Amino acid sequence: MTIPELDDVHPAWLPPEAFRAVGSRRTLVAGDGTLADTVRAEVAHACARHGGALDGPHDLVITLSPQEGLGDEDFVLSRQDGVTTVAAGGQAGLLYGFFAVVRLGEAAFEGERAAEHHRPALRRRMLDHWDNIDVHPVMGQVERGYAGGSIFWRDGVPHDDLTRVRAYGRLLAASGVNAVAINNVNVHATEARLLTDRLGEVAAIAGALRPYGIRVHLSVNFASPIALGGLPTADPLDAGVREWWARTTERVYAAIPDFGGYVVKADSEGQPGPFAYGRSHADGANTLADALAPYEGVVHWRAFVYDHRQDWRDRSTDRARAAHDHFAPLDGRFRDNAILQVKYGPMDFQVREPVSPVIAAMPGTRLAVEFQVTQEYTGQQRHVCYLGPLWSEVLGFRPWGPDGATVAGLAVNGGLVAVSNVGDDPYWTGHPLAQANLYAFGRLAWAPDLDPGAVLDEWIGLTFAATGDREPLRRALRELMDGSWHTYERYTAPLGVGFMVRPGHHYGPDVDGYEYTPWGTYHFADRDGVGVDRTRASGTGFTGQYPRPWSEVYESLADCPDELLLFFHHVPYEHVLRDGTTVIQHIYDTHFAGAEQAAGLREKWEKIDGLVAPDLHARVRERLDEQVRSAEEWRDQVNTYFLRKSGVPDAHGRRIH
């Protein structure tokens, strides 16, 4: 096996210099199999560059060590008598242990190290690609993609050379990801055929990712028995439909024995589903789960189901309620290999949302929590917005209070899934600093209790390993990125109200853009106040979908966290927040502050000039220029809107248009 290297693509967090500590030593790799061969090839490649060797006496031993309590992905890292040892429970553990040593660098070979058992907290750590085979007339090659075209397909055909796909698998394995769904959840006509006559393309991609332990999954159209099989129905309880899925799945596994399973978006935003036949989502999911069960495959069934033809005049209808209303009554009715994939918030990947109540409502169902690495609502990879702290907050949230389980604990059997932010851009993610979000997703999926700041430091240390004086660069990047989520939140939608984006492409401010549309994403600002009343006492009753204590906390105007105030309550502009400012003044202050902080990010980046490659510096500077411009536009539109709506002036007399 050869290690994938791309001359015209940024190496992200695996530059050659990151392998110096391993590659300059003598290493033994003991074990057989595909992943063991990958590790052996990685070590040989690093040694060829940095002067090490694969013969003894050994400084590093990476060995299979099957034993009770050590799973296939587990490894034990230790150092004794001058030898660093990775003892893995299975081949995957060899791979993850090797990359753990790469992350540690020289620290892996210093002093003594007591045995540390490393085990992924979540079994499935998966990325969903929203890639299209054909260029969609509205969404393009990659839906909600901000980093160029697909790394799998271009203009209707697969890429001839899959070296980049293998390099992508290498990056994912190094961060802890072990599964990828390769096509859009909105399955269009051409993409639907990946399940049948274009299955060879899926097999080729699976072959490119297999050496790095990445299992391929496929998004499928619920109506495939009609569209592909010529059946008159897709009723999940129809015997012919069930037989069609069983035979089709058998052919998939004949071509790809380690195939992961299916991803389904059904009865959502125009996608077909079981409602058309009077069936439940459990009925739909179970039919596919039964077809996959003989091969130990899984179906990820997305819970993103809501009425996207809502009457904006009807305040009793609440999009936030939809997933819980549809799925909570079905708890316990899904097969063991059906995984309900739930967005972390009840709306749609906003910069601030409460945790979805569905996550706590279905103890008898395997749940996967879904994040969005691609920055659809957080700057579209034109803005710096490090999302690690957001995800860390979600994963650590305890739906039943301080003594209850965390979100991460509730997702143990289902896993963590995120929409990928990768494209064929030379920097993988368009904005070079957006690579940190992809890396952080993998690391937090492996260990949700990691400090997101420490993860950011890891990414900086690996990605910029070739820099001579790394501490000034690390410090500057940490200052620039660590608080960037809060900076973005300050100049966009306030106090959890969400959206306020330009309809369709979702970039830039448009306060009333969705206010009178069918999409159910409203802020209800009027002359007296702003926010959505979701209380049981006088609103939509959404607060009642949470268990105690949060059902009471969110219901209470006095107790509701300020950062979520407008998500749960409609309040007067003069409502006083905990810091003593009014809602209207908070809107003004944060939007002025956010725009100033965005300008400060650009100033910090200018100080890095000379510490990073000129082309990378120029790309980030171009993105920061756009971020500053956009932040000022957000500031001016939001502040002007609320000044005109409320008639309340800024207490500090700043210019509002």
From TrEMBL:
Domain Glycosyl hydrolase family 67 C-terminal: 429-654
Entry-linked SUPFAM superfamilies: (Trans)glycosidases
InterPro entries per record: A-glucoronidase_C_sf, GH, Glyco_hydro_67_C, Glyco_hydro_67_cat
Domain Glycosyl hydrolase family 67 catalytic: 115-428
Gene Ontology molecular functions: alpha-glucuronidase activity; xylan alpha-1,2-glucuronosidase activity
Taxonomic superkingdom: Bacteria
UniProt signal peptide: none
GO cellular component, one term: extracellular region
GO terms under biological process: xylan catabolic process
Name of the protein in its database record: Alpha-glucuronidase
Organism annotation: Nonomuraea solani
Lineage summary: Bacteria, Bacillati, Actinomycetota, Actinomycetes, Streptosporangiales
